[in-house]
Amino acid sequence: MERRRKVELFEQIRREYEFGIGTIKGVATKLGVHRRMVRQAVASAEPPERRPSQRERPVIGPLRPFIDAILETDRNAPRKQRHTAHRIYERIRTELPEYKVAEVTVRQYVRERKGELGWSTRETCVPQSYAPGREGQVDWYEAWAELSGEPIKLQVFSLRSMVSGAAFHRAYHRATQQAFHEAHEQAFHYFGGVFRLLRYDNLKSAVKKVLRGHQREETTRFIAFRSHWRFASDFCTPAEPHEKGGIEGEACYFRRNHWVPVPQARDLEELNAQLLAACHEDERRQIAGRDATVGAAMIAERAHLLPLAEQGFELAELSFPRVDGLGCVRVRTNLYSAPAPPGRTVEVRLYPSHVEVRDEGRLIARHERCYERHQQILDLEHYLDVLERKPGALIGSKPLAAWRQRGLWPESYDRLLARLIERHGKPSGTRQMIQVLSLIRAHGHGRVRAAVEEAITLGCADGAAVRHLVEAVDLTHARAALIELDGLARFERPLPVMTDYDGLLGQEVTP
Length: 511
Known about the structure:
By secondary structure, this protein is α/β, with parallel strands linked by helices. It has helices at 3-19, 24-31, 35-43, 64-74, 85-95, 103-117, 177-191, 220-229, 245-258, 268-282, 294-302, 384-389, 398-406, 411-424, 426-438, 440-457, 463-471, 499-506; strands at residues 135-147, 150-161, 167-172, 197-200, 207-210, 216-218, 232-235, 264-265, 317-319, 328-331, 334-337, 347-350, 354-359, 362-368, 376-377. The strands form 4 sheets. Strands 1, 2, 3, 4, 7 and 8 form a 6-stranded mixed beta sheet that branches. It has a 4-stranded antiparallel beta sheet with strand order 9-12-13-14, with no helix packed on it. A 3-stranded mixed beta sheet has the order 10-11-15, with no helix packed on it. The N and C termini lie far apart (158 Å).
């Protein structure tokens, strides 16, 4: 019954009870209602609120344990890498195809559960309009990934076009200024041009100090970088992220769709390849209210972007340290091995992902950059010349331990070393093993490892034999030229005529 009609009925019951029959049974009989309703009307003029009926939900019911398990797992997941209702619906379609459920049903249940968990937060944004090629928005966000089986928190750079909706994402161990500049260049090449205006937070890579109003004291390197690529910059008010709501929403969308579940990769390079593939995948989606896909709009916008610079910005941070007595150079707080004599001054180029050591312009060492403090990053290959003179130092050396940790010293090397020592003695056998390791410089780890394993299989424990197996791949044998039978005709010659010679032999020779 409609509530208004019920209120009118309560009024009629109350009047009849007070000025009419005056008994509950009589009022109920006269008006044809239950005595319970008469008692309710006598007690209060307001009808009680009707309790919603709790009915069974046959569609979502069997899926409740699956959804609840996902939400329970999200309790321990990074806050910004939890499942959305749409992501849960997609997982149901993929992992439980036997259950047919509408997305709206899943959304309703997830909304109720998240409300009970206190996870529902909404923000209001004001829509903006942008000219093609005019503005891009930049930000960093955090995300977790498993690199070689170990969970690592990463800093992810993102740049979004405000017209096409296309975005570029790239992960780094730290949000350094070098990573900031390198990611910009990668993004510019991804979009095929440079946006005329880029909007930022007050990032330390770009802003040295926030002044009054919209004034900022920018870093020298950022000013030079901006001048090199010819774009303008604008910075948001502190603690007002809604001023660049496009990139805020993009980070949320990309993280929920491509960082959930937590991605797995061998290293950061492989992970960034996955992120780039995800960026290309998003080019096929179509944003609500737009006629073209993200990729088509990005291609159309490319004509309005500033052209790319002919040369990239110099990203390396240069320093000129000296090689110490341990064969290392100090970069920031860490030590990196370098195959140069102690006391030699070398050139070090520090990049976001790696460190290069150069001697008179020649690259002599390259290491993956370490973002920890007071660490030693050692490569056994840089100490082989020294170890050949001091073979006894190999077994307990830190560079060897580093190779074992990185998986560059397989079990087959231990077996070969043991056989060489057994056959030739410890000094000579270790020296031969060092000579085998020296082959890695020219032929790489894979070929040397395969040759060592083959030598062990053949039962051979000799450094010269391993060298032969490594270099045998490059040996070529000359093959005789193949001649077709039809081509032999050009070599035919007339047979000799011996008649005159026979006649000469038949004549009598006279003195």
